[in-house]
Design brief:
- This is Universal stress protein.
- Belongs to the universal stress protein A family.
- It comes from Halorubrum tropicale.
- This protein is α/β, with parallel strands linked by helices and 152 residues long.
- It has a single domain, classed as HUPs (Rossmann fold), CATH 3.40.50.
- It has a 5-stranded parallel sheet, sandwiched between helices.
- Helix 1 packs parallel to helix 4 and helix 5 packs parallel to helix 7.
- The longest helix has 12 residues.
- The protein is globular and about 45 Å long.
Length: 152
């Protein structure tokens, strides 16, 4: 199966692993000349705070999730790394549940692969706190690559 479209789930917690995520995307998408869809998902509170911090007027037409995601530090860094490697990509923003939004994006763009980042957690930690990455892995319409955060 050739890879034509890759969706990357991006959240603020991915700031620590942008280089690892970019390297994985470059390895997956670069040789296949695939399109990467950087999908930054905000919860409501984070979206409002980020929009205000970046200077967007809440009532302005340009204060969309796509625009806010495009100016968010983590997404910009990933975009710069992909551009430097010649990987075609676009940026999407969404407000809501990370797993739901990523799965819906993957379905909408008919993704061949989804990439999610995360940290290793104990089984108890997953049971108590849940895991958006785990939910994406179980619900995605295509294979999912998990990029684990390195131990600091």
């Amino acid at each position: 199966m050739s890879i034509e479209t890759v969706v990357l789930a991006v959240g603020s917690a991915d700031e620590k692993r942008t280089e690892r995520l970019a390297n994985e995307l470059i390895a997956l998408a670069g040789p296949a000349d695939a399109e990467v869809v950087l999908t930054h998902v905000f919860d409501e509170e984070e979206f409002d705070e980020t929009r205000a911090r970046l200077g967007f007027d809440a009532d302005a037409e340009n204060a969309t999730p796509d625009a806010v995601a495009g100016r968010h530090r983590t997404t910009r860094e990933l975009s710069n790394l992909l551009s430097a490697a010649g990987v075609r990509h676009s940026i999407r923003g969404a407000v809501g549940d990370l797993a739901t939004e990523v799965v819906e994006t993957a379905e909408g763009v008919e993704a061949d692969r989804v990439v999610v980042g995360g940290r290793q957690r104990s089984p108890t930690g997953k049971a108590v706190f849940g895991s958006a990455a785990q939910e994406v892995m179980l619900s995605a319409p295509c294979p999912v690559t998990f990029v684990r955060e390195t131990a600091s």
